[in-house]
Amino acid sequence: MKVVLQDLTKIFPSRDKKAGKEVVAVNNFNFEIPDGKLIGLLGPSGCGKSTTLYMISGLQKPTSGKIFFGDDDVTELPTENRGVGLVFQNYALYPHMTVKQNILFPLENLKGADKMSKEAMLERAYEAAKLVQIDELMDRKPSELSGGQQQRVAIARALVKMPRVLLLDEPLSNLDARLRLQTREEIRRIQRETKITTIFVTHDQEEAMSISDMIVVMKLGVVQQIGQPQEVYDDPVNLFVAKFLGTPPINVFNGKVAGGKLYIGGDAVLEVPGIGDQEVTVGIRPEGFVLDENGPMHCKLSNVEIMGRDVSIVSTNEASLNPVIRSIINADNKVDTSAETVRYSLKPHKVFVFNKETEERIKFEVK
Amino acid sequence: MVDSKHQWKAWIYLSPAIVLLLVFTVWPIINTVRMSFLENYSGLEAVGGATFEFGIGNFQKVIEYKRFINCLKNTILLCVLTVPVSTILALLIAVALNSIKGLQKVLQTIFFLPYVTNSIAIGMVFAAMFNIVGSFYGTQNEIVVTAGIINNVLEFLGFERVNWINAGSSYEANIIVMTVYIVWNALPFKILVLLGGLQSINKQYYDAAKVDGTPRRRVFTKITVPLLSPMLAYVVITGFIGGFKEYSSIVGIFGENMGPVDDVGRLNTMVGFIYDALETNKQGRASAAALILFGIILVVTMINMQVSKKRVHY
Amino acid sequence: MAEKNITIMHAKDMGKETSRQKIVKLAVKFFVYAFLILMALIVLFPFYWMIISSLKTLDEYRLSVPTFWPQKVMFSNYAEAFTTGNLGRLFLNTMYVGVVSTLLSLVITVLCAFAFARLEFKGKDTLFAALLATMMIPGELFTITNYSTVTQLGWMNTFTVLIVPFLVSVFYIYLLRQNFLQIPNELYLAAKVDGTSDLKYLWKVMVPLALPTLISITILKMMGAWNSYIWPRLVANDEAHSLITNGLRNAFTDTTGDVNYPVQMAAVAIVSAPLFLVFLFLRKYIMAGVSRSGIKG
Question: What is the pLDDT of residue C25?
Fold first, then answer.
C-alpha cells in the first residue's frame, strides 16, 4: 500500500493561553511512501515525527493537508477504518490478557463480512506469533515477559489483522543495547516477509540508517531531507542533516573559500571549484581524513584510540567548532603517538561546504 | 543499631497514642469478648455486688431473639440492594464523566456533594420529600394536606400515590425509600474512587483499541472493567462493610423510632440492636451481637476478597 | 499471508462508514451528557428542595400542588430555626469539640506516625501490623466497653467524653506514616549530622512536607465531629453538651403531629451550610483525603 502525504500540517493550540503562541508540530509535509517499503522518520525529540505517525494512524487529525492510502483519501477516515497497525512506544499490551488474548483481540473486533470463525482466528494468531517467534509464550501474561518479548507481542498484535500500513512509534527505545540490535534486524526481517508498508519513528540515526529503505529527516516540524540512508549520509542538503547522521558525528569547522580553495585556519585543505569567495562552515566526516605526512591540514594530536579494525585519532584545531576532532582511519596505518601534530589530506567526497548563514549545502565539483 | 536510649525515645513519641489505644481499643476488644461470655451480663458489675457465670447464653438469646433476626434481615436486605445498585450507578457515572471534557469539573463537584452532608440532616430532607402530611391514612375519612413531592411527581406521571414512610406504610415502601437514600449517600465515594481509577488507566490502551476498531461496548467490558477491577473490588468490599453498619441513615429518615410510627423498630439494623441493648443495660447481649456483626463482616469480606482474587486481574 | 488479508481491509466501504459513525458519535455524546445531567439533577434535587422548602410559609408548604419557588420568601424561618433549635449553642459545642479534638489528635498522630516512619525500636513491625488489624473491627464493638469505661471514669455529660475516646485513629496514623515514608531518609540523616533534634526536624521538615495530608486529616476530623450522632447520643444527652446533629434530630421531631417543616428545613440548611462552605474552599484537600482512603483496603 502506497501512502501519500500531501501538504500535511499539524498546529497545536498553545497550552498557555496567555502566551498565545501556537506550536507548528508538522509543517507542510509532502511525501509519497512507496508500497512495501520500510521508512524511518528520524529527528530529535519535538521534531514532529511522532505527530506525523499519529496523523497517519488517524489518532490525531491534521490541521490541513491530506493523507492517501493508495488512491483512497483517508484524511477524514476514523482510525478504526484505516486498517493500520500501530505499535506503541511502551507497547500498550493489555495487562489483564494473556499473549494469545492480546493477539486475538483485534480479530475479535471484526464484524460483518470480515467476521472470522474461532478456528480461523486462532490459526491467524499463531501464524502471527510464529512470525515474531513468540508462539511458545502464548499463555503468559505481559508482566511475565521481558521487554523484547513484549515488543514482539505488540508487533504480532499489530500484524495479526494484516494492516495496510504498519506504524511503529520508537519501537526500540525501551530495549537494552543488545536487544535493540537484535530486534531491529527482526523488524527488518518481518517487514521483508510481510511486505507491508512500514513506517517507524526514531530519534536514533543508527537505528534508522541500518534498517530503513528510506529515511526522512525532520527538524522542528519541517522535513529536511528524504532519501535512501546512504544517499542522505553521503549527500546531506544542509548542516543539520550532516550533523544528525553518522557516528562518530561529523567534524565541523569555520572555514573560508578564496580563489577556488577551501581554507581551514591557515591551511588550504582542498580545491573546491565552483564556489565563490566567502566565509563558510565546513563538515568533514571522520572517515574523510587520510593520514599524510605532507597533507595540507595541520592538527594538534591529543590522543589515539585503537578500536581493533579502526584507529580513532583525537586531535584539535583552532578552527574547529567541536572541542575535538575525531578521525577514523584503517588500523594498518601507523600513527606516531609521540608526535605533536598530525597532518591530513582530505577525501573530497567526505567534505561538505555549507553557507555560513543559511547552513545550506554549497556543492562543488569533485574531480 | 538499636540502642536502648533510642528505644526509650521512640516509646515517648508513641506513648500518647498507645495509652489511648490501650484504654479505648485494646481493652474493649478483650472486655467485649469477656462480657459476651458472661450470662446476662449487665452494667451492674460496675456498681459492685453482681457476679456472672460463664456461658454462651448471650449468643443463644441474641440468635433466638425475633428482633435480632429482624435486624439481621433488614441489614442484609439493605446491603444486597444498595451495594450493587450504587456500584453499577457509580461505575456508569464515572465512565461517563471520564469520557467528557466540557462540564467535567462542575459535574464532578456536584456528584461529590452528598459526601459533605450530614446523613441525619439530609435524611430529614428525604423524609420531608416522601412524607404525607395529613391524617387518617387508609381510612374513609382520609385527609391529605400535602402528599410530598415524590408523590406529587408520581401522580403527575399518572401513577398512584404511595404511602412511603407514614403510619400504615408497607415494609416494601420503607425499604425502597431507604435504598434510594442510601444509594444517594453512597454514590460520591464510589464515583470518586472509580473516576480516580479510570483516570489512572494509561490512555494508550484506548488508542490501541481504537486502532483495532474495537466497538464501544467491547472497550468497556474487555478493557475498562478489567483494568478497573481492583478499584471495583475495593468499593464493593467497603460498600458491604459500610452496609452492615447501616444505622444513622435510618435515623435520618425515620427518627429513633427506626420505623413508621405504628411499627416502631421495623427497620432496625444490627448496629441499632447493639445500641438498644446497650441503652437498656444489657451489655452481655450487646457484646454478643457486636461479635456476631464482626464475624459476619469478616466472613463477607473474606468471600469478597476470594471472589475478587479470581476476578481481579493483577 | 499478506496478500489475502490486504484484500479484506480493502473491502470496506469507507465513505459511508464515516458519516454513519459521525452520527453515532454525536448520539452517544448526547446520551452521555443527558445521562450525566439527569443524574446530577437527581443528586441536587434534595438540596434544592431543602432550600425552597425552608423559605416557604407553612401554608404554602402544605399546598396539595407544590410550588417550585416560594411565593413569599420567608427568611424569618431561619431566625426561628436558630432560636427554636437552640442552634447557636449547638454550634459552639460542636466547634469546641471539633477544634480541640482535631488539635490533640493531630499532635498524637504526628508523633506516633513519626516514630513508626523514622525511629527504630523493638517490635515496630509487629506493633504496626497489630494496629492495622484493629481497623477491621467495627467501631460498635469498642463502644460497648467504652460506654462502661467512661461511666466509671465519671465522664458522662462532659466534653471530655466526646473528645478523648476518639483521639487516636489508626487510619490517620497509617495515612501520615505513608506520607512520612515518602520523604527521603537522606533529609533525616542530614539533619542528624547537623545536630538537629528529632523534634525540631519533625516540626521544621516533616510537618511542612506532609501538610496536605495533615489538612486532609483536619477536615475529615472536623467533619466527623459535625456528623457524629451515635456516641454523643449515648454519653452526652444534656443540652449543655449536645452536638449539632443530635440537637437537630431531637429539636424537630419531638413535636407530635404538626411539624413545622419549613422551619425544620431551615435548620437543616443551617447545619449543612458550614460543611458546604468548607467543601467549596477546600475541595481539593477533601477529595484527595477521601480518595486516598482508597489505599486503605
Answer: 84
Say how far apart CA C21 and CA C36 lie, in whole Å: 22
Count how many residues are written for chain A: 367
**Does pLDDT of C207 surpass 50?**
yes
**Cβ–Cβ below 8 Å for A81 and B213:** yes
CA distances from B159 to A8, B151, B167, B168, C67 (A): 61, 9, 21, 19, 20
Answer whether B16 sits within 8 Å of C229, measured CB to CB.
no
Q: What number of other Cβ atoms are within 10 A of residue B231's Cβ? A: 23
| Beta bridge partner(s), residue A222 | A219
Domains annotated for chain C, with CATH where assigned, are 85-251 (1.10.3720.10)
Sorting pLDDT into bands at 50, 70 and 90, what band is C9? very low
Residue C231 · residue C143 · CB < 8 Å: yes
Q: Hey, what CATH class is B60-311 in? A: mainly alpha
Inter-chain residue contact A161 with C6, CB threshold 8 Å: no
| CATH number for the domain formed by residue range(s) A3-243 | 3.40.50.300
- Judge whether A211 and A198 are in contact, CB under 8 Å: no
Residues A244 and A224: their CA atoms lie apart, in Å, by: 11
Q: Which chains does chain B touch, 3 or more C-beta pairs < 8 A?
A: A, C
CB contact under 8 A, B110 and C43: yes
In C, which residues are within 8 Å of B234 by CB distance?
294, 297
Judged by CB atoms closer than 8 Å, whether chains meet at B208 and A109 is answered as no
Listed by number, the residues of chain B in 191-210 with a beta carbon closer than 8 Å to a beta carbon of chain A are 202, 204-205, 207-210
Mutate to test the interface with B, among C36, C60, C94, C155 (most CBs of B within 10 A): C36
Q: What is the pTM of this model?
A: 0.82
pLDDT of residue B141: 62
The confidence band for C75, taking pLDDT boundaries of 50, 70 and 90, is confident
Write out chain B residues lying below 8 Å of A141, CB-based: 314
Q: What is the per-residue pLDDT across A131-184, written as a single tens digit (0 to 9) for each? A: 888 889 999 999 899 888 998 899 999 988 889 899 999 888 878 888 888 888
Q: What is the pLDDT of residue A171?
A: 85
Q: Search chain A and give the residue with CA nearest C18.
A: A77
**Which ranges of chain B have pLDDT less than 50?**
1-2
Of C46, C138, C294, the CB nearest to B294: C138
Give me C250's grid cell. 431531637
CB burial readout C102-124, b (16+ within 10 A) else e? bebbbebbbbbbbbbbbbebeeb
Smallest Cα–Cα separation from C243: which of C129, C117, C86, C47? C86
Separation in Å, CA of B154 to nearest CA in chain C: 12
And the C-alpha cell for A357? 548563514
Q: Residue C225: what pLDDT?
A: 85
CB of A92 less than 8 A from some CB of B: yes
Which stretches in chain A have pLDDT values below 70?
A: 15-20, 367
Write the pLDDT tens digit of every residue in C102-125: 999 999 999 999 999 888 888 888
Q: Which of A81, A194, A195 minimises the CB distance to C14?
A: A81
What's the ipTM?
A: 0.87
What percent of chain B clears pLDDT 70, i.e. is strictly above it? 91
- The residue extents of the domains of chain A are 3-243, 248-362
- The set of chains that have 3 or more CB pairs under 8 A with A is B, C
Helix (H) or strand (E) holding A252, with range, is: strand A251-258
Residue C90 contacts residue C274 (beta carbons within 8 Å): no
| Integer CA distances (angstroms), B203 to B99, B208, C22, in order | 12, 9, 22
